[in-house]
Amino acid sequence: MAIQLQQAGIRDIVILERADAVGGTWRDNRYPGAACDIPSNLYSYSFAQNPNWSRSFSGSGEILDYIHYLVSHFNLAPYIRFKQNVTGLNFDENAGLWHASIEGGDTVRARAVVMAQGPLSNAIFPDIAGLEKYKGHTIHSARWDHDYDFSNKRVAVIGTGASAVQIIPELVKQAGFVKVFQRTPGWVLPRPDFETPEWNKALFRKFPGTQDALRKALYVTHESMALAVIWNSPLTRIAERIGRLHLRRQVKDRWLRRQLTPDFRIGCKRVLLSNDYYPALQQPNCKLVTWPIDRLSEQGIRTAEGIEHQFDCIVFATGFDVCKTGTPFPITGLGGRALHDEWARGAQAYKSINVAGYPNLFLTFGPNSGPGHNSALVYMESQLDYAVRGIQKILDEDLKMLDVKADAQAAHNKAIQARLANTNWNSGCKSWYLTEDGHNVTMYPGFATQYALQMRTLDEADYRRTPMAGG
């Protein structure tokens, strides 16, 4: 966002960072095997491509290096204030300013605010009875303990999602014994991960157009995957067949295959990519446990059939508290309205980026902007461009308020929810995409190209514009 604002000639910028370093989820998620499940040449910004990716799917450390490169190359350090934990946002409608309250008592005032806290930023532990009773070592995937020695330890892994399928193969190499507690098996597809040869990197450095061509090819390939994972189509059956063949090829034991076979349509939950997850589960020092967890005890985990499994360490690969029905901190808009209350039954916004009654506020990864098949950064760039246009309008026209109209927001969300009803995400499984009552406020029901197209134009008829006094 800061890079795009800079390039638009806007330099009165402050970045409030809760931590003491940049990097977000790639700073926090440094567990063994951490990597992106989108190819690196697509999981990077089109305006700052990196010719030196070491692999097709780079690890978290390399992605973090890329973020540090962005900060250095675009001279963002002067804008960043570290250890600034925002505790609230309040809009002063008389002055047309947002007041950001900082833990410790400071306040930052701004003409416009961009929410860039990220949906995958607050680690969550599962709601399991006895969690506080366990006396062994605990590690969350997003808060990895790099000092803990797994050698000869009995280790439990709770969860079999995107982080778990990366962690488990690495733990099996290190630990004495690993038990994996699975609630629901997921669809796992092969991961086409290859080392990038030096000649390829040199080609990208000398002829950047070749890298751009690869990026476009990857984009088109991933766009086609929408036909398999977003909607129920013949390609869905093909994708499921690939998943079953991958399982059959890597798991010979029929009973284990049955335990690992999903009972929901592919795409309903996040699709997993791994070449080494299934082999790891079959190692002599690894066992899959499918009995439901009843509670944690002082020594380990007690499952529903009454068996207590004892461990030295429990690893929670249980994801994040994604704000689907609230906000990360109190946000107060016009007339004292609270966004947390308005989103209590499910978040909604206009084009995922603005909310009626909260002028001059822009969201990144707002409601219904999640990708199911393509790079998140493709969606992100569209949001950044849109926010820049909105902020430029506020500054150029000296607006006190640029506020999306409630009826425009309602019409947009009615259309989005109608489209979501026919997607695989809403086909009956339970996932983090949905609220407790099954409302999908997370995903965008279409191609990334469609999303970018809707973000290309800021339709002034959908906004109320209030000039500053005397403007």
TrEMBL record:
Signal peptide: none annotated. The keyword Oxidoreductase applies. InterPro entries: FAD-bind_Monooxygenase_sf (IPR051209), FAD/NAD-bd_sf (IPR036188), Flavin_mOase-like (IPR020946). It holds the Pfam family FMO-like. Keywords: FAD, Flavoprotein, Oxidoreductase. It comes from the Bacteria. Gene3D superfamilies: FAD/NAD(P)-binding domain. The keyword Oxidoreductase applies. This is NAD(P)/FAD-dependent oxidoreductase. It comes from Alcanivorax quisquiliarum.
